[in-house]
Amino acid sequence: xxxxxxxxxxxxxEDPFLLLQAAPGRTGLEILKEVFEGRLPAPxxxxxxxxxxxxxxxxxxxxEGEPGExxxxxxxxxxxxxxxxxxxxxxxxxxxxxxxxxxxYTTLEVKANFVRxxxxxxxxxxxxxxVIHRGGTIATAEGKLVALSTGKLLAHGTTTCLxxxxx
Length: 167
Hints:
Elements: H1 17-22, H2 28-36, H3 44-49, E1 51-57, E2 60-65, H4 80-96, E3 104-114, E4 125-134, E5 138-147, E6 153-164
Antiparallel strand pairs: 1-2, 2-4, 3-6, 4-5, 5-6
């Protein structure tokens, strides 16, 4: 069987530790605004998977991405990991945007529902994450991934995050 032309993709990224070095003395929202505005580098995962942060405010984060052929799985659609990564990023950054100086967070659980396949024909997608609850040690958020061209829901999910207080 002829498989066609071999394809390749080159990905470049900046030092991911620049974000950690910039964090002391700043809130989560301050750091994220600098990333989303391009004054600090995007995390390598965004470059690798082809998505960008387009908006952040306290309790909300929005990402957009372009499904590519390099994201396809053996059944002929974009792998669910693309949708899951966008959901995890949007929901996690929504929580991150609520952090005070010195606070940190980590994800405890993520749940995703894939409701439509994503293909090259889907076009650009948008994922919004919104905090549902922000307590002293636990935060929850929800996210929705939609096709920009049609507004149709592609996936949705929830997350639970552990908030680590400032030292």
